[in-house]
Write a structure and sequence with these properties.
The structure is a homodimer.
Chain A: H1 2-24, H2 28-36, E1 50-56, E2 62-68, H3 70-79, E3 83-86, E4 91-94, E5 103-110, E6 116-123, E7 138-141, E8 144-147
Parallel strand pairs in A: 1-6
Antiparallel strand pairs in A: 1-2, 3-4, 5-6, 7-8
Chain lengths: 150, 150
């Protein structure tokens, strides 16, 4: 009876350790499946986020970069409109929810280890809250910035 | 004598509170300077990181996305080769330090609130560790992934 009890407990402890290890770092099998497989296995970081880059589907311009949690990813896939997770406000937001300048998502690309996405988008207006077409409207020039249209 | 001591202490406390507030959220003046100004004022997140997107300077393809701390940013600017901060290994790494597939940085674009960069690069070889030209070689297709070249 002692032996019968000991086996399940030690196995349970072993499985717990194994699961913890897997949660911290992929096994080589999981990493290979993520990199080469056909399964979508998004890898959210410690804060529960993926990096999401919105790129103009026509011009190739990188319009903006933001973060997605599971909720934002699901909302984006369900509606076809880009949703993100605001780290500062701690909530879901749809790009353009106030301005109307939504981003229609045509394609979602997934990177090798599935912790980042490129959204190929058709913007309904300026993608930047400043009114610029995209957020990257300045270049580093020496120690300062110059406008790309300047 | 009591009064003389009280003034510096209360001023010190006030300044500490003011500094803490500024560290948490920009004042409107600072936010405006970041968005519209010509000063490079990179805004590192709570973990001390910027998001950095490497984009092929010729084709416009987004090759990879990673993170930069101050050290990686300085190394990139000093050498003209893309350096990042590895979150998993907790250290500086130069893209291509093992493979030789470095990224020559032609231009660094800075976003509106200066917490993200686009590096316009000329890659010396495949940018992805898998041997692919870039990391975004698959698209989400229903609930699975399809290769872009497949």
């Amino acid at each position: 009876m002692v032996i019968v009890q000991q086996i399940p407990i030690s196995r349970w402890v072993f499985c717990q350790l194994l699961q913890e290890d897997r949660a911290i770092s992929d096994t080589s099998d999981t990493a290979a499946a993520r990199e080469q497989g056909a399964d979508f296995m998004p890898r959210f970081d410690a804060a529960g986020l993926l990096t999401a880059i919105a790129q103009d589907a026509t011009s190739g311009e990188v319009l903006m970069v933001a973060f997605m949690d599971r909720e934002a990813l699901d909302a984006t896939r369900r509606t076809g409109l880009a949703h993100f997770h605001s780290r500062s406000r701690g909530r879901l937001w749809m790009k353009g929810e106030t301005s109307g300048h939504v981003l229609h998502v045509e394609t979602i690309l997934v990177d090798c280890d599935q912790d980042a996405l490129v959204l190929k988008v058709r913007p309904a207006g300026p993608a930047c809250h400043t009114g610029e077409r995209g957020c990257f409207y300045r270049a580093l020039d020496g120690d300062g910035l110059t406008r790309l249209d300047g």
